[in-house]
Amino acid sequence: MGVFKKVSLKDIAKAAGVSTALVSFVLNGKSARYRVNEETAKRVLKKARELDYRPHSSSKGLRYGLSKTIGVVLSDIANPFFSQVARVMENEAAKLGYTVLFGSSDENAGLMNSVVNSLMNKGVDGLVIVPCEHAEEAIGGLVQNRVPVVLFDRSIPSIPTSYVMLNNHAAAYAATKRLLAVGKKPYLVAYDIRLNHIEERIRGYQDAMANAGKSKQARVLYLDRSDLQMSAQSLLTESIEEEECDAFLFATNKITLTCLYAFKRMGHEVFDRLKLAGFDATPAFDFFPTPIDRISQPVEQMVKKALEIVITYIHQEDVSLKKVMLEGKYVESPGGAR
Amino acid sequence: MGVFKKVSLKDIAKAAGVSTALVSFVLNGKSARYRVNEETAKRVLKKARELDYRPHSSSKGLRYGLSKTIGVVLSDIANPFFSQVARVMENEAAKLGYTVLFGSSDENAGLMNSVVNSLMNKGVDGLVIVPCEHAEEAIGGLVQNRVPVVLFDRSIPSIPTSYVMLNNHAAAYAATKRLLAVGKKPYLVAYDIRLNHIEERIRGYQDAMANAGKSKQARVLYLDRSDLQMSAQSLLTESIEEEECDAFLFATNKITLTCLYAFKRMGHEVFDRLKLAGFDATPAFDFFPTPIDRISQPVEQMVKKALEIVITYIHQEDVSLKKVMLEGKYVESPGGAR
DNA sequence: CTGAAAGCGCTTACAG
DNA sequence: CTGAAAGCGCTTACAG
Fold first, then answer.
1. What is the CATH number assigned to the segment(s) A168-297?
2. Using one digit for the tens of pLDDT, what is the confidence trace for A81-117?
3. What is the CATH number of domain A1-65?
4. Which single residue has its CA nearest the C1' atom of nucleotide D2?
5. Cβ atoms < 10 Å from Cβ of B138
6. Could you count the other beta carbons within 10 Å of the beta carbon of residue B160?
């Protein structure tokens, strides 16, 4: 075993008895432009194939400055929502001739910073970032250094950056309206976190409640991030038993899952009469005894848009700020109407 | 916006009034070896910090041949099992100073080939591959070219390669024994696919049935990969209604999920009296009305081992073949004994 | 039509 | 103690 010796342009040049420049021309389809002899071109191509030549893309990058690589910072690639995003990123980037490099921040600014640094060191041409709390400084620095960057899933209002995300306010508003329409008294379950997408989902819920004249019945449950399971358990129990709440809207798929585990422990009598809805479904939603409606995001469209934006930045074609908000879709659970 | 100009060694050299070589020495902690003047070293370090210098890792790679990058080919990074693997890979590789580049093959040899190629072109030092069906040629080629490679999750017996995977035979054997121990008549649900890990799981099931003197009752259900849902539906129904099968062992988490959807459609009366067990649990398992036992893989250990092996290959320290099989753990569903 | 040369950013013997 | 030079693999004006 050991490191395979790579076949270089020089090897082909030697084998074909020409210069490396000529090989480069031929292999890059510039034979015409440089009016390379057809015979020669064929010979070069043949040798290249024989030797199984693979262009050394980082040298290429070195030479003309770009690596055709985009760094993607997710909060956790093992989260079903983000692993789906990762997959679509991979596919769409490949279509555009780019490779993506992933990093997970775990919603932690320090980790995010080090991931961004390592990505930059790897020579990425641009970044797609799911910013976490306290990421202002790091993102601000990138923007100042004119690094092509687009935020994804969330934005940082205090910093002028392009972003692609769900119209969170509208999605939460619509979902709340649906829950109210079936005569329920819904609470929103969220985190106490300064993340734009969560805040917008909270606002959407509150506005919907207010517009229905039910401001007084509105309540947002803030799970304790250091003890999700326990805080869910106690907040949910309290809401149901003491405040007659009979519907919940969950702000993220992780929150939904946490609450489902809590409900499971409380038993059928409790959750059977609840109406539930959550962002970003996972298969688990389909098997919970009580049907769960879902707000689904147009992931493919979001990813395409984000890549499109970074790439135009990389090429410096259009440097204006792009703020893209896409609409979510409220999907009634196939589990049946309640 | 636009491409930020990178700060290079030259910039620092100019700013500090020394040669690039000296800067390189200092920044690589070789001041001592080259007995660099302490004052000079400090000045260089200071300038480097001021200019926010980031070494251009691909140039580094160019110079000394290695990129400190490992390519990881999964079948689908959006599959919960593999997204978990991806996350652990990312973390463990970082600890070892490596970056991982992911690619998904979708269990398709053609796609796998192109993913491997693109990874090689990106200059990875080695590869960790989850081989798909018909991957013999591609993997064989890599081995022949002495590319450092280790297979993951499955092996290809006909090709001498290192691998890290579950002891699939033992895991399936043990699971089947457990199902038999509670007086059940279990069937195995699998795909008709020539993948080593699936075949071993099948053998494990069959051997356990044989050893219990129940060869005649053993049956393997092969789902049709072109129509998973329908084939599951009909095979499961038939098994339960006509063959008195009352327990199922699912060969992969995707199969489990497919079957759970099928059961859901059949209704409680059907699945309530079944005993179920599957490889690689996902949260969905926890919410299916009938408890599902699980065979869990030591993912972290597997990933560490795989990385360890490729890296020793990359450094050409130990070129012997490594065949690592780790044991799975049978976990009774917390849903309760049945 | 083809080759020699420079240069991308880096490291490392080799001189001095 | 420090600098000039070569070379990793590639591309691209520039000569001829």
1. 3.40.50.2300
2. 999 999 999 999 999 989 999 999 999 999 999 999 8
3. 1.10.260.40
4. B22
5. 22
6. 10
